[in-house]
Amino acid sequence: MSSKPSTPRKPSVSRASGCVSKTKKDASDSGQYQGNITSLEELLIKSPTLAPTLRGRPRVSDTKTINFDTSSSDGFYMVTTDNDDDCHAVLIYKQMQPSGSVKFYIYDPNGKERINYTKRIMIDGKRASQIDVTMTPDGGINPEGFCALWCIVVMILWDMDIDPRDPFGDGMRKLNLLNEKIYGPRKIPGLRKWLITMIYYLFMKRRAYIPSVTEDFVRDVQQQIRLFLTYSPESPIFPFVNAIADAIADEKAGRITEKEYDTMVNNLVKESITAGAGAGAGAGAGAVINAAVAAGIDIAAKSADAGLVGAHADADGGGIRRVRSLRHKNKISRRVKKTRRTRLTRRTRRMRRMRRMRRNIKSRNR
Questions:
Q1: How many domains does the structure of the chain reveal?
Q2: Domain that includes residue 187, residue range
Q3: pTM of the full predicted structure?
Q4: Is 217 part of a structural domain of the chain?
Q5: Starting from the edge strand earliest in sequence, which strands make up the sheet with 66-68, in order?
Q6: What is the DSSP string of 49-83?
Q7: Which residues are registered as beta bridge partners of 75?
Q8: pLDDT band at 134 (very low <50, low <70, confident <90, very high)
Q9: CA pair distance 51, 332, nearest whole angstrom
């Protein structure tokens, strides 16, 4: 498969690695995607440093129950929920309470309304009674079907630049900021699409996952997460996210085709790699993120109140002008092709007329 970012438009039910769905295939069903997801998950589980809060996978019985023991370590567990027509990747965080009971937190990129498997979660052979869904966004953020990829992003986000004084609280604050900026009353148009298309691009451009490749991938994802968490009108990716939001609106309104939309988003994401290089890394990045997490909702609110979210204020020629230039380029391309066809037709006609004239001259000379 090409390393070109994928921007599938159809809404679909998410899948996880190793699953076969009865619904229409999409990018997450390709052999390379499934193989890479499986390899990456195994390497993250085995690594003590890349995702230190990840503990592994719980036992799943033939009756589809998800089984934990009280003695199991606290932290994230990768879970594949197997339904009648599909399977889906989610995260379950096990946390021992001071009282000795166990609490489970669920992260599901399909949203809270799709969590229908809580009765399958078992602790020491009994149905779990303490289940919390606050980690999950209020609505679905996964129309592309990249549920396993979203879970990996959340695990990387949770453990990066962690505050050792309150690791769980710090992870929750970062995850809440991620969810707030993607889905909710303060969401930023275009930002979700930029993030998942960028992560998918970084994921698929690596042909095979081994420990060194996994380390590079995690570093790349951390950089994109930093750009996401610190996003503001001054962000280097602001014009690109803004332009993606405009492309989404144009595609929904029928002003551009699905193919043109895909091309625009792919080009904008690739261009933003250069613009954001180095901006989300380096010394002090953790402090910047902590400040953004502390005031993250306020940052989004100020942007919305100031009319900057979805605005076209881009002095460097980005934003809506970038989308229009891409649209103009597509129109020019179609016009050039049409002109070439017209010229070719005219030339063919001239050549045919010349042949007829030569034949007529020869026949007269005879």
A1: 1
A2: 27-326
A3: 0.74
A4: yes
A5: 59-60, 66-68, 121-123, 126-127
A6: SSSTTEEE--EE-TT--EEE-TTSPSEEEEEEEE-
A7: 94
A8: very high
A9: 48
